[in-house]
Amino acid sequence: MKNPLSEMTQTTQTCLWNDSADLDELRWSIDQGGVGATCNPVIAHTVLKARMAEWRPRIAALIQQRPLATEDDIAWAAVEALSIDAAALLIPAFTAHRGRNGRLSIQTDPRLFRDAGAIVEQAIRFDALAPNMIVKIPATRAGIDAIEQVTALGISINATVSFTVPQCLAVAEAVERGLQRREAGGYDVSAMGPVCTIMVGRLDDWLKAVMEREGIVTDPGHLEWAGVAVFKRAYTLFRKGRYRTRLLSAAFRNHLHWSELIGGDVVISPPSAWQKRFAASDIEIRPRIDTPVDPGIVDDLSRRFADFRRAYNHDGLGTHEFDDFAPTRRTLRQFLGACDDLRQLVRDVMIPNPDGK
Length: 357
Fold this sequence. Notes:
Strand order of the largest sheet: 1-8-7-6-5-4-3-2
Order of helices and strands: HEHEHHHHEHEHEHEHHEHEHHHH
Helix content: 40-55%
CATH topology: TIM Barrel
CATH architecture: Alpha-Beta Barrel
Protein backbone atom coordinates (compact mmCIF):
# COMPACT_ATOMS: atom_id res chain seq x y z
CA MET A 1 0.00 0.00 0.00
CA LYS A 2 1.28 3.44 -0.91
CA ASN A 3 2.23 5.84 1.84
CA PRO A 4 0.72 9.18 0.72
CA LEU A 5 2.95 11.20 3.03
CA SER A 6 6.15 9.73 1.62
CA GLU A 7 4.73 10.01 -1.89
CA MET A 8 4.21 13.74 -1.35
CA THR A 9 7.80 14.30 -0.19
CA GLN A 10 9.14 12.25 -3.11
CA THR A 11 7.03 13.62 -5.96
CA THR A 12 6.18 17.25 -5.11
CA GLN A 13 8.01 20.37 -3.94
CA THR A 14 5.91 20.48 -0.76
CA CYS A 15 8.15 19.88 2.25
CA LEU A 16 7.39 18.01 5.47
CA TRP A 17 8.56 19.28 8.86
CA ASN A 18 7.77 17.51 12.11
CA ASP A 19 5.78 19.55 14.63
CA SER A 20 7.82 18.39 17.61
CA ALA A 21 11.41 18.12 18.80
CA ASP A 22 10.77 14.62 20.18
CA LEU A 23 13.66 12.58 18.80
CA ASP A 24 11.72 9.39 18.09
CA GLU A 25 8.94 11.28 16.34
CA LEU A 26 11.49 13.26 14.35
CA ARG A 27 13.32 10.10 13.26
CA TRP A 28 10.03 8.65 12.02
CA SER A 29 9.26 11.84 10.11
CA ILE A 30 12.71 11.87 8.53
CA ASP A 31 12.07 8.32 7.33
CA GLN A 32 9.00 9.68 5.49
CA GLY A 33 11.07 12.40 3.86
CA GLY A 34 10.76 15.01 6.60
CA VAL A 35 13.36 17.78 6.35
CA GLY A 36 12.72 19.99 9.37
CA ALA A 37 11.10 20.33 12.77
CA THR A 38 9.36 22.91 14.89
CA CYS A 39 9.09 23.48 18.62
CA ASN A 40 7.30 25.85 20.98
CA PRO A 41 6.82 26.05 24.77
CA VAL A 42 3.80 23.71 24.67
CA ILE A 43 5.68 21.12 22.63
CA ALA A 44 8.80 21.46 24.78
CA HIS A 45 6.85 20.89 27.98
CA THR A 46 5.03 17.91 26.46
CA VAL A 47 8.31 16.25 25.39
CA LEU A 48 10.14 16.91 28.65
CA LYS A 49 7.23 15.72 30.79
CA ALA A 50 6.78 12.55 28.72
CA ARG A 51 10.49 11.76 29.00
CA MET A 52 11.21 12.73 32.61
CA ALA A 53 13.12 9.51 33.23
CA GLU A 54 15.66 10.83 30.73
CA TRP A 55 15.34 14.54 31.44
CA ARG A 56 15.21 14.60 35.24
CA PRO A 57 18.96 13.87 35.60
CA ARG A 58 19.76 16.32 32.80
CA ILE A 59 17.73 19.06 34.46
CA ALA A 60 19.33 18.19 37.81
CA ALA A 61 22.75 18.56 36.19
CA LEU A 62 21.80 21.99 34.81
CA ILE A 63 20.67 23.05 38.27
CA GLN A 64 23.96 21.90 39.78
CA GLN A 65 26.02 23.62 37.09
CA ARG A 66 24.16 26.92 37.56
CA PRO A 67 23.70 27.49 41.30
CA LEU A 68 22.36 31.03 40.84
CA ALA A 69 19.96 30.22 37.99
CA THR A 70 16.24 30.73 38.39
CA GLU A 71 13.58 28.18 37.48
CA ASP A 72 13.03 30.10 34.23
CA ASP A 73 16.75 30.04 33.44
CA ILE A 74 16.88 26.27 33.88
CA ALA A 75 13.65 25.74 31.93
CA TRP A 76 15.01 27.61 28.93
CA ALA A 77 18.37 25.83 29.23
CA ALA A 78 16.44 22.56 28.96
CA VAL A 79 14.55 23.85 25.92
CA GLU A 80 17.85 24.80 24.33
CA ALA A 81 19.31 21.35 25.03
CA LEU A 82 16.21 19.66 23.60
CA SER A 83 16.47 21.81 20.47
CA ILE A 84 20.19 21.12 20.02
CA ASP A 85 19.54 17.37 20.20
CA ALA A 86 16.83 17.58 17.54
CA ALA A 87 18.85 19.91 15.31
CA ALA A 88 21.64 17.33 15.13
CA LEU A 89 19.30 14.85 13.43
CA LEU A 90 18.56 17.42 10.71
CA ILE A 91 22.12 18.27 9.72
CA PRO A 92 22.09 15.90 6.69
CA ALA A 93 18.96 17.57 5.32
CA PHE A 94 20.39 21.01 6.13
CA THR A 95 23.46 20.19 4.06
CA ALA A 96 21.52 18.58 1.21
CA HIS A 97 19.08 21.50 0.96
CA ARG A 98 21.79 24.15 1.40
CA GLY A 99 20.06 25.75 4.35
CA ARG A 100 16.56 26.06 2.95
CA ASN A 101 15.45 23.03 4.96
CA GLY A 102 17.01 20.85 7.62
CA ARG A 103 16.35 23.40 10.32
CA LEU A 104 15.01 23.13 13.87
CA SER A 105 12.59 25.89 14.86
CA ILE A 106 13.20 27.19 18.37
CA GLN A 107 10.68 29.70 19.67
CA THR A 108 11.57 32.90 21.46
CA ASP A 109 10.07 33.43 24.90
CA PRO A 110 6.39 34.39 24.34
CA ARG A 111 6.62 36.76 27.31
CA LEU A 112 8.74 39.01 25.10
CA PHE A 113 6.05 39.50 22.46
CA ARG A 114 5.91 43.29 23.03
CA ASP A 115 9.68 43.90 23.18
CA ALA A 116 11.47 43.84 19.83
CA GLY A 117 14.89 44.42 21.38
CA ALA A 118 14.54 41.50 23.80
CA ILE A 119 13.31 39.25 20.98
CA VAL A 120 16.34 40.16 18.87
CA GLU A 121 18.71 39.50 21.77
CA GLN A 122 17.25 36.04 22.38
CA ALA A 123 17.17 35.26 18.65
CA ILE A 124 20.90 35.94 18.41
CA ARG A 125 21.52 33.53 21.28
CA PHE A 126 19.31 30.82 19.78
CA ASP A 127 20.86 31.15 16.34
CA ALA A 128 24.27 30.37 17.84
CA LEU A 129 23.12 27.08 19.39
CA ALA A 130 23.54 25.10 16.16
CA PRO A 131 24.28 25.90 12.51
CA ASN A 132 20.78 24.82 11.45
CA MET A 133 18.57 26.73 13.86
CA ILE A 134 15.62 28.78 12.64
CA VAL A 135 14.19 31.17 15.21
CA LYS A 136 10.45 31.48 15.77
CA ILE A 137 9.28 35.05 16.33
CA PRO A 138 5.63 36.00 16.86
CA ALA A 139 3.89 38.04 14.18
CA THR A 140 3.00 40.72 16.70
CA ARG A 141 3.64 44.43 16.29
CA ALA A 142 7.04 44.18 17.99
CA GLY A 143 7.72 40.84 16.34
CA ILE A 144 7.51 42.32 12.84
CA ASP A 145 10.21 44.83 13.77
CA ALA A 146 12.35 42.08 15.29
CA ILE A 147 11.96 39.92 12.18
CA GLU A 148 13.50 42.61 9.99
CA GLN A 149 16.35 43.18 12.43
CA VAL A 150 17.36 39.54 12.88
CA THR A 151 17.02 38.81 9.15
CA ALA A 152 19.46 41.63 8.48
CA LEU A 153 21.83 39.88 10.90
CA GLY A 154 21.67 36.70 8.81
CA ILE A 155 19.31 34.79 11.11
CA SER A 156 16.59 32.69 9.46
CA ILE A 157 13.16 33.21 11.01
CA ASN A 158 9.93 31.28 11.33
CA ALA A 159 7.11 33.74 12.02
CA THR A 160 4.61 32.21 14.43
CA VAL A 161 1.39 33.24 16.21
CA SER A 162 0.20 34.04 12.69
CA PHE A 163 -3.28 33.40 11.31
CA THR A 164 -4.00 36.04 8.70
CA VAL A 165 -3.06 37.31 5.26
CA PRO A 166 -2.13 40.75 6.67
CA GLN A 167 0.28 39.19 9.16
CA CYS A 168 1.88 37.06 6.44
CA LEU A 169 2.35 40.05 4.16
CA ALA A 170 3.86 42.10 6.98
CA VAL A 171 6.25 39.22 7.75
CA ALA A 172 7.23 38.81 4.10
CA GLU A 173 7.87 42.54 3.69
CA ALA A 174 9.94 42.63 6.90
CA VAL A 175 12.01 39.68 5.72
CA GLU A 176 12.58 41.33 2.34
CA ARG A 177 13.77 44.53 4.01
CA GLY A 178 16.11 42.49 6.19
CA LEU A 179 17.45 40.48 3.27
CA GLN A 180 18.01 43.62 1.22
CA ARG A 181 19.90 45.23 4.10
CA ARG A 182 22.08 42.15 4.41
CA GLU A 183 22.71 41.98 0.66
CA ALA A 184 23.62 45.68 0.68
CA GLY A 185 26.30 44.79 3.23
CA GLY A 186 27.82 42.32 0.78
CA TYR A 187 26.50 39.13 2.38
CA ASP A 188 25.18 36.08 0.55
CA VAL A 189 21.62 35.26 1.68
CA SER A 190 21.08 32.18 -0.49
CA ALA A 191 21.51 29.78 2.44
CA MET A 192 18.86 31.47 4.56
CA GLY A 193 15.47 29.76 4.84
CA PRO A 194 12.77 32.09 6.22
CA VAL A 195 9.25 30.75 6.64
CA CYS A 196 5.97 32.23 7.82
CA THR A 197 3.58 29.96 9.69
CA ILE A 198 -0.17 30.12 9.32
CA MET A 199 -1.85 28.35 12.23
CA VAL A 200 -4.73 27.28 10.03
CA GLY A 201 -6.56 25.16 12.57
CA ARG A 202 -6.49 27.86 15.23
CA LEU A 203 -8.36 30.22 12.93
CA ASP A 204 -10.95 27.49 12.34
CA ASP A 205 -11.17 26.94 16.11
CA TRP A 206 -11.84 30.61 16.77
CA LEU A 207 -14.58 30.93 14.16
CA LYS A 208 -16.28 27.87 15.64
CA ALA A 209 -16.14 29.53 19.05
CA VAL A 210 -17.64 32.71 17.59
CA MET A 211 -20.40 30.68 15.93
CA GLU A 212 -21.36 29.14 19.27
CA ARG A 213 -21.08 32.40 21.21
CA GLU A 214 -23.10 34.46 18.76
CA GLY A 215 -25.56 31.79 17.69
CA ILE A 216 -24.54 31.94 14.04
CA VAL A 217 -26.14 29.37 11.76
CA THR A 218 -24.08 28.23 8.79
CA ASP A 219 -22.97 25.05 7.11
CA PRO A 220 -20.59 23.61 9.73
CA GLY A 221 -18.43 22.17 6.99
CA HIS A 222 -17.58 25.68 5.82
CA LEU A 223 -15.64 26.32 9.01
CA GLU A 224 -13.19 23.55 8.10
CA TRP A 225 -12.11 25.65 5.10
CA ALA A 226 -11.38 29.00 6.74
CA GLY A 227 -7.67 28.41 7.43
CA VAL A 228 -7.19 26.75 4.05
CA ALA A 229 -8.77 29.74 2.28
CA VAL A 230 -6.46 32.14 4.12
CA PHE A 231 -3.42 29.99 3.32
CA LYS A 232 -4.24 29.78 -0.39
CA ARG A 233 -4.91 33.51 -0.56
CA ALA A 234 -1.59 34.25 1.11
CA TYR A 235 0.21 31.82 -1.21
CA THR A 236 -1.19 33.59 -4.27
CA LEU A 237 -0.06 36.97 -2.95
CA PHE A 238 3.37 35.64 -1.99
CA ARG A 239 3.98 34.42 -5.53
CA LYS A 240 2.73 37.69 -6.96
CA GLY A 241 5.06 39.62 -4.68
CA ARG A 242 8.01 37.27 -5.37
CA TYR A 243 8.70 37.04 -1.66
CA ARG A 244 11.58 34.85 -0.55
CA THR A 245 9.67 33.59 2.48
CA ARG A 246 7.82 30.27 2.30
CA LEU A 247 4.50 29.65 3.98
CA LEU A 248 4.17 26.89 6.58
CA SER A 249 0.92 25.21 7.58
CA ALA A 250 0.51 24.34 11.27
CA ALA A 251 -2.18 23.57 13.88
CA PHE A 252 -3.78 20.65 12.08
CA ARG A 253 -7.44 19.83 12.65
CA ASN A 254 -8.33 17.91 9.47
CA HIS A 255 -6.67 16.51 6.36
CA LEU A 256 -7.51 19.63 4.34
CA HIS A 257 -4.73 21.43 6.17
CA TRP A 258 -2.41 19.06 4.34
CA SER A 259 -4.14 17.72 1.24
CA GLU A 260 -5.32 21.10 -0.07
CA LEU A 261 -1.79 22.52 0.06
CA ILE A 262 -0.01 19.72 -1.79
CA GLY A 263 2.00 20.91 -4.76
CA GLY A 264 2.91 24.29 -3.40
CA ASP A 265 6.43 25.44 -2.60
CA VAL A 266 5.39 25.39 1.04
CA VAL A 267 6.03 23.52 4.26
CA ILE A 268 3.51 21.42 6.11
CA SER A 269 4.28 20.78 9.76
CA PRO A 270 1.89 18.24 11.28
CA PRO A 271 2.33 16.61 14.68
CA SER A 272 3.50 13.01 14.55
CA ALA A 273 0.02 11.64 15.20
CA TRP A 274 -1.35 13.47 12.16
CA GLN A 275 1.58 12.38 10.02
CA LYS A 276 0.84 8.76 10.83
CA ARG A 277 -2.82 9.26 9.99
CA PHE A 278 -1.89 10.83 6.67
CA ALA A 279 0.59 8.02 5.93
CA ALA A 280 -2.12 5.40 6.53
CA SER A 281 -4.79 7.25 4.54
CA ASP A 282 -5.96 6.79 0.99
CA ILE A 283 -5.66 10.48 0.08
CA GLU A 284 -4.65 10.91 -3.55
CA ILE A 285 -1.43 12.86 -3.91
CA ARG A 286 -2.05 15.49 -6.54
CA PRO A 287 -1.44 19.25 -6.65
CA ARG A 288 -4.33 21.17 -5.10
CA ILE A 289 -2.66 24.38 -3.94
CA ASP A 290 -3.91 26.28 -7.00
CA THR A 291 -7.45 24.92 -6.77
CA PRO A 292 -9.49 27.77 -5.25
CA VAL A 293 -11.68 27.21 -2.24
CA ASP A 294 -15.32 27.19 -3.35
CA PRO A 295 -16.21 30.90 -3.75
CA GLY A 296 -19.55 30.16 -2.12
CA ILE A 297 -17.77 29.02 1.04
CA VAL A 298 -15.51 32.09 1.06
CA ASP A 299 -18.54 34.35 0.53
CA ASP A 300 -20.49 32.66 3.32
CA LEU A 301 -17.60 32.95 5.79
CA SER A 302 -17.02 36.56 4.78
CA ARG A 303 -20.67 37.52 5.29
CA ARG A 304 -21.04 35.83 8.66
CA PHE A 305 -17.66 36.30 10.35
CA ALA A 306 -15.92 39.65 10.69
CA ASP A 307 -12.78 37.91 11.90
CA PHE A 308 -12.65 35.83 8.74
CA ARG A 309 -12.76 39.03 6.70
CA ARG A 310 -9.94 40.41 8.82
CA ALA A 311 -7.92 37.25 8.23
CA TYR A 312 -8.65 36.81 4.52
CA ASN A 313 -8.46 40.34 3.13
CA HIS A 314 -4.99 41.75 2.53
CA ASP A 315 -5.96 44.95 4.35
CA GLY A 316 -8.14 43.29 6.99
CA LEU A 317 -5.78 44.16 9.85
CA GLY A 318 -3.23 46.87 10.44
CA THR A 319 0.05 45.98 12.11
CA HIS A 320 -1.10 47.88 15.20
CA GLU A 321 -4.04 45.45 15.44
CA PHE A 322 -2.06 42.18 15.31
CA ASP A 323 -1.69 41.87 19.08
CA ASP A 324 -5.43 42.28 19.68
CA PHE A 325 -6.66 39.74 17.12
CA ALA A 326 -8.53 37.09 19.12
CA PRO A 327 -6.58 34.02 17.88
CA THR A 328 -3.36 35.90 18.70
CA ARG A 329 -4.51 36.50 22.26
CA ARG A 330 -5.70 32.90 22.61
CA THR A 331 -2.42 31.46 21.37
CA LEU A 332 -0.20 33.78 23.37
CA ARG A 333 -2.11 32.85 26.52
CA GLN A 334 -1.55 29.16 25.80
CA PHE A 335 2.16 29.69 25.18
CA LEU A 336 2.46 31.80 28.33
CA GLY A 337 0.72 29.04 30.27
CA ALA A 338 3.25 26.55 28.91
CA CYS A 339 6.04 28.73 30.30
CA ASP A 340 4.40 28.35 33.71
CA ASP A 341 4.25 24.58 33.16
CA LEU A 342 7.95 24.46 32.26
CA ARG A 343 8.80 26.42 35.38
CA GLN A 344 6.78 24.02 37.53
CA LEU A 345 8.50 21.04 35.93
CA VAL A 346 11.89 22.49 36.86
CA ARG A 347 10.67 23.37 40.36
CA ASP A 348 9.81 19.74 41.00
CA VAL A 349 13.44 18.85 40.30
CA MET A 350 15.03 21.88 41.95
CA ILE A 351 12.91 21.72 45.12
CA PRO A 352 11.43 18.21 45.40
CA ASN A 353 8.15 18.11 47.32
CA PRO A 354 8.95 16.76 50.81
CA ASP A 355 5.48 15.21 50.94
CA GLY A 356 6.40 13.04 47.96
CA LYS A 357 3.59 14.40 45.81
